[in-house]
Amino acid sequence: MKGVKIHDxxxxxxxxxxxxxxxxxxxxRKIQEDMGDDNPLFLGILNGCFRFSSDLLSHxxxxxxxxxxxxxxxxxxxxxxxxxxxxxxxTSIENRHVVILEDIVDTGNTLDFLIEKLSAENPASxxxxxxxxxxxxxxxxxxxxxxxxEIPNLFVVGYGLDYDGYGRNxxxxxxxxLS
Length: 179
Ligand code: IMP
Description:
With about 180 residues, the protein is α/β, with parallel strands linked by helices. Helices cover about 20% and strands about 35% of the residues.
């Protein structure tokens, strides 16, 4: 079993790069099938979504756009429960079919905040695609339209996800090692 140490914590491999890629292919094809000729506007939520967005869009060959937004709300291994501001919404989303791309949905605070902000701009629809979803801590109001993997309530890193800034470069996803 592969392992990595980041700062003070040990992590063990949880989802291999092969499994991630296979699942993203399935999710991408499903999105494409559902969106048809809608000309979707993907909104990737930085920083965590950079790898997921890139790999997901490689499976979409219909007309679409992508922009990136930032919401800063998280540091360390526990969510602060506080979400600050939305940065980077520079194009109009009015009457557009928006698909939010998230790396992970945990409590759902970030997503609730995002959907509230984006809804005020009158998009035609808002859908959510997340690579990872932790159903246990989720308190959000919104349904998730596309989920790569449902995972237990444990801290994970890799494939875009970080622990205090590190680990985003890892190709596999690692779970915190419980002692
Ligand atoms: P939420 O608002 O609680 O749903 O948290 C969303 C954000 O918290 C994600 O976009 C991540 O940046 C971060 N996050 C939540 N869980 C984890 C994790 O297990 N590893 C790394 N980041 C996480």
